[in-house]
Design goal:
Blueprint lengths: L2 H12 L4 H15 L3 H12 L4 H28 L2 H21 L3 H16 L2 H11 L5 H29 L1 H22 L9 H7 L4 H6 L1 H17 L5 H8 L4 H26 L4 H17 L7 H28 L6 H29 L2 H22 L9 H8 L10 H5 L1
Helix pairs in contact: 2-8, 2-9, 3-4, 4-5, 4-6, 4-7, 4-17, 5-6, 5-7, 5-9, 7-17, 8-9, 8-14, 8-16, 12-16, 12-17, 12-18, 14-16, 15-16, 15-18, 17-18
Length: 427
């Protein structure tokens, strides 16, 4: 491909999106550049502070529990208070709690503040997703979510390298650096992002009271997607939990694991945008079924990976699944969410990932200890198959539109309708 065509493709990938999206995108990138706590918490507690692995596991679990708690609360705040106030409060409180964590000495204090950090750092996710759905046209949402996911991984890749160097000299500097960058995000939100929550018509005011968490939980199709998201999350998180355990028990070094898992971030940075251009107007049902199978069997192939090179190839398979699944599933979540209930719907969706972050380490450790790593990879293949069948069943006769029929009914008024893509119409 010529340089001119590459330049044209790049321009088409980023064109047509509103300025507010790019400020939100910048906020996401800056926030992920400071992802120190999530990356180095275990090493900080065991290497720098000298705590046991079991205590480190408890603290990491409490951090994940904080995300479970805040997902639902932040979703309600996003709808009631607005996207901008929720983002501002979440990011400012994250900056404070991360800085505080760096100064904690007593084990109980460390555990309590880690719970607080988990709550505050996850509280912005429903607001970010709801704001993105508000400001981006329906036909551009797959591309917008892909660009945001690309920013997350680009920021994380850079922060992992820089934060590793910082940690060699001072973990406290890493905590304070993350706090400073998160506070910068809060300032960006306050200065550059207007409130995007859709205004309610007079006829919708009374009906809005009916959109509560119960509405989300009674939405069968949507909760099916949340359940499938949980299964997919269990699979993907084995890259952080099951894979290092299995490689360690097989005699691979930590350097080997670092090289293998680095393939994931590199491929996402390189391929997320071009792959999204290829898939954005294709049938989402087929894409989600394909991504579930690639994820499950990509990890399943790890059972046959006897070398670093072979394991890296398996990472290529499930990374492609991740690249396809993330923007497609996020677009589906928005499509099934009512216009004035997006915060709550996004909160419940975020909950699926938060709960999976608690269950995934337990699944990996228990299966590997009792049955061996091969059984874990067989389990991921089974989960991928179940998820693929689930996507195929749930998306049959899926109604079109922004929020779908269920979403419009929940909102008490017709939702804005977007024209389905040709591929979606064929599905």
């Amino acid at each position: 491909m010529s340089a001119a065509r590459i330049g044209q493709a790049a321009r088409e990938s980023v064109s047509g999106l509103p300025p507010a999206f790019w400020w939100l995108w910048t906020s996401t990138l800056v926030n992920r550049l400071g992802a120190f706590v999530a990356t180095f918490m275990t090493l900080y507690l065991t290497v720098d502070r000298g705590y046991s692995a079991s205590f480190a596991g408890l603290v990491v679990a409490l951090h994940g529990l904080g995300g479970v708690i805040s997902s639902l609360v932040a979703g309600v705040m996003t709808d009631r208070l607005g996207r901008r106030p929720t983002l501002l409060a979440a990011q400012a409180s994250t900056a404070f709690s991360v800085a505080l964590l760096g100064f904690m000495e007593h084990p109980a204090a460390i555990a309590a503040v880690a719970l607080l950090v988990g709550m505050t750092s996850n509280a912005s996710r429903p607001a970010v997703a709801a704001m993105m759905a508000d400001i981006v046209r329906p036909e551009d949402r797959v591309r917008a979510f892909a660009l945001n996911y690309w920013a997350i991984n680009l920021g994380f890749a850079i922060s992992s390298m820089v934060a590793g160097l910082i940690a060699q000299h001072s973990y406290l500097a890493g905590f304070l650096g993350e706090a400073a960058l998160t506070l910068t995000c809060a300032v960006l939100v306050f200065v550059k992002l207007p409130e995007s929550r859709p205004e309610k018509a007079a006829a919708q005011t009374a009906a809005e009271a009916e959109i509560g968490l119960g509405t989300v939980l009674r939405d069968g199709r949507y909760m099916g997607v949340v359940g499938l998201s949980f299964l997919i999350s269990l699979i993907y998180m084995q890259g952080a939990f099951g894979l290092p355990l299995a490689m360690g028990s097989a005699g691979f070094s930590t350097t080997d694991y670092g090289l293998v898992v680095a393939v994931n971030g590199i491929l996402i940075v390189l391929l997320q945008i071009p792959v999204t251009r290829f898939i954005e107007h294709r049938d989402p049902q087929k894409l989600l079924v394909l991504s579930a199978l690639l994820a499950g069997y990509g990890f399943g192939l790890t059972a046959f990976g006897g070398s670093v090179g072979a394991l890296a190839l398996t990472v290529c398979v499930w990374t492609l699944a991740e690249i396809i699944n993330s923007p497609t599933q996020m677009s589906l979540v928005v499509r099934l969410s009512p216009l004035h209930g997006r915060g709550r719907y996004q909160g419940v969706y975020t909950l699926s990932w938060a709960v999976a972050s608690l269950v995934a380490p337990l699944l990996a450790g228990t299966v590997i200890d009792r049955f061996g790593a091969a059984w874990l990879w067989g389990t991921t293949a089974g989960l991928g198959t179940v998820a693929a069948v689930g996507y195929w069943l749930l998306m049959r006769n899926l109604p079109g539109g922004d929020g779908g029929a269920a979403g419009a009914a929940a909102a008490g008024a017709p939702a804005p309708v977007s024209a389905p893509t040709p591929a979606a119409a064929e599905g």
